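hey m, so remember when u said the tokens were messed up on ur end? i reran from scratch. heres the input so u can diff it against urs
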Amino acid sequence: MGRDTIADIITSIRNADMDRKVTVRIASTNITENIVKILLREGFIENVRKHQESNKYFLVLTLRHRRNRKGAYRTILNLKRISRPGLRIYSNYQRIPRILGGMGIVILSTSRGIMTDREARLERIGGEILCYIWVLPGMKEQKWIHEGLITESLPNGMFRVRLDNENMILGYVSGKIRRSFIRILPGDRVKIEDSNN
């Protein structure tokens, strides 16, 4: 089974967004270049440049909403794959959905190339619905830091913690600790970050 190129670029951009990265690199193909042109034109990304590395071409995208921001922000760029290789979704121009009342876009593959829902309605043509893209306003997260003692290690990087105020909570390992495979054992003192979402 072949790779789903569109799902790959959506996942790459979403992961970069979640990791607060400024840039993301994706493989350069005809379809990814067309989708990236739409993202740039619609203002979802700041910049794009083509990069060659050992006879392979990549696109380096600069994410727009990460520049000059201080503090932690929730993910604001949302991408959702709709049509997949195992389940193709098609629509005529009259039934193309409107994302958040027109605040987001639908990217379609039509007989005249890849275009947005607005362009498809103007051209009066339908096609395969590739993905939805929308932006929610960035919201400041309020974070609370608690200290406590690990009482029990659980599968999947989770553990029980008795906080200094005697409350018991369930925590999990994330970020650099998880990527570095650092083990947390019962009896260790930890700091727990609780985002008030």
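this time it looks ok to me. The first strand starts at residue 23 and ends at 27. if urs says something different then somethings off w ur setup not the seq
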